[in-house]
Amino acid sequence: MFVANRMTKHPVSVTSNATIGEVDRLMKKHKFHRMLVIDNGKLVGYLSDRDIMRVTPSPATSLSKFEIRALLDKLSVKDIMQTKVVTVNEDATIEEAALIMYQNKVGGLPVLSEVGAIITATDILKTFVDVMGLPRGNKTRMTLEVSNEIGTVAAITKIFADNGVNLDSLITCSHDGKRYEIVVRLDDRTQGFDDVKRQLEIHGYKIVHVAKIG
User: pTM, whole model, 2 decimals?
Assistant: First the structure.
């Protein structure tokens, strides 16, 4: 799955000459946490609600709401925007985008594309939920502990197939490079689940957790 499939195209943006007060009201109205700053069709900066909070007087101040608003209306976006913007290409994978966000501790990335776009942590989370098949009804989630051996995944999926149990999704997660967790989600409409559990245990695969999801 690629960034181009999950990004928000033509997001609401502002110019560098807009006032902080205008942007603050716009963010609150639309419940945005970040905005692109675009001048003459070119990305020149990035602004988040945290940037606005940095220049907003403390709630403990004696200033009234009207005085605070007047102060914010005197500041321009260009005064506080981030100009060293971390970006991602639209042909990058979702995993790459997630890694860039994690490494740079940011909640969103402008996407370098012809249409102008942004991808956020919420988009990444929604992708994870979709990949796990969670919106598609009740599922059984099973976690297996296995060793790092070639053919393990193939052997496990064969056990499910031989017992007529349909796998909805499967992911692996390494603990120390030697032991892995394999998380599978099963379509609850299929039969043979108890037979699968017996066969997995017979073949030495440890079932560490089973739960209903959705």
Answer: 0.77
